[in-house]
Write a structure and sequence with these properties.
Methylamine Dehydrogenase, Chain H; 2 domains; four-stranded antiparallel sheet; 9% helix; 34% strand; elongated; WD repeat; BRWD3 protein; WD40_rpt; repeat; WD40_repeat_CS
Amino acid sequence: TKLKVTMVAWDRCDATVITAVNNFLLKVWNSSTGQLLHSLSGHDDEVFVLEAHPFDQRIVLSAGHDGNIFVWDIDKGTKIRNYFNMIEGQGHGAVFDCKFSPDGQHFACTDSHGHLLLFGFGCNKYYEKIPDQMFFHTDYRPLIRDANNYVLDEQTQQAPHLMPPPFLVDVDGNPHPTRFQRLVPGRENCKDEQLIPQLGYVANGDGEVVEQVIGQQTNDQDESILDGMIRELQREQDLRLINEGETLPNPPLNRSHSVNGG
């Protein structure tokens, strides 16, 4: 098999270069002479994550599609720690990205199942205050492009960075309670009525009133009530900008209506 380099990283002081190869080995090279210093084995699938410690030039983190996360001492060529991302009932999850915290005491990883993994020192009670499933309601909204090929949100016809702050929902799109909505930057001081209630009531086809999440209800135009609330918030924001004397961005003309995945 022809060998290919899948990822390259420098240590914090640029003294060494670390390469990940598709034979699942990591190689540590002297950046000045090109001399091979160490071959690190441990992974059994391709590695696409190499992350240097923010201030300790000896420490490098690697992660790959085998679900393994390794912390290496590249001076000695040894493993410091190994974590395996096993997901109950689903096997392992491939690790797609990892980053150290600025203080070097923690690192965060994301995997193929949409999980955020947090590793480090200290207590985890701070993280237990938030729900297990947290997505923005706009995460999978379709996008369109205008005549200038700029990306717009299809529902609101706005550039994504000009839209109001998104709402937090679970994996099924159900809004979280208002106390969690205030965790979103820009919603910290919102009134209760500006945040989404978790549940509502709607009549089904048999005339029975059933409990249903707001995000799944639709109005007479088949627009979800959640999207309708977003549209109204956008309108209020535009009016506020007008009243404050600011100029709204010119709406793009001749928009294309081909939908792109977002």
